[in-house]
Amino acid sequence: MTTHGPVLPIWSCGGCDAPWPCRTRQRAGQQRLAAMLPPRACWYGRQVIVEEHWWNGDRTARGRRDVYIRTDGRRWEVQAQIGGAQGRSEVLECTSRSSASILAGAWRGGNPSWRKLPD
């Protein structure tokens, strides 16, 4: 077995001559990182699609509220965000699309000022 390590000063792999870091070393690093991360971090490591997004219509940083329904194709989650992108948020996982819709509706509270934003 060859050793995949950097060859300096040209920064190539000593095991396969590919530019450093080679694919073998990249995969090994990703596997080590995945083993160290908690489950929530792995969940965010996937590509997620925002299915629906609502905004309360308030443009101020203090008053802005957003509710998102997101999925990666297998799991569903709802995020309630206060104060825009720099504010606080809470994320809850849901078992299905319908339960995510119910939770998102509860967080919006039936207030008519909420607007559904386009995808």
Short description:
The chain is an alpha+beta fold and 119 residues long. It has three helices and seven strands, in the order ββααββββαβ.
Describe the structure.
There is one protein chain. The chain is of the alpha+beta class and 119 residues long. The chain folds into 2 domains: 6-36, no CATH class; 47-117. It has 3 helices and 7 strands, in the order ββααββββαβ. A 5-stranded antiparallel β-sheet has the order 6-5-4-3-7, covered by helices on one side. It is elongated, with a radius of gyration of 21 Å. The termini are far apart.
Mean pLDDT: 82
Strand order of the largest sheet: 6-5-4-3-7
How many domains would you count in the coordinates?
A: 2
- Which strand-content bin applies to the residues? 25-35%
Secondary structure tally: strands: 7
Q: Spans of 5+ residues with little confidence (pLDDT < 50)?
A: 37-42
The biggest beta sheet reads: 5 strands, antiparallel
Order of helices and strands: EEHHEEEEHE
* Shape by Cα distribution: elongated
Which percent bin holds the helix content?
25-40%
How far the N terminus sits from the C terminus, by CA atoms, comes to 50 Å
Structural class: alpha+beta
Number of helices: 3
Provide the gyration radius in Å. 21 Å
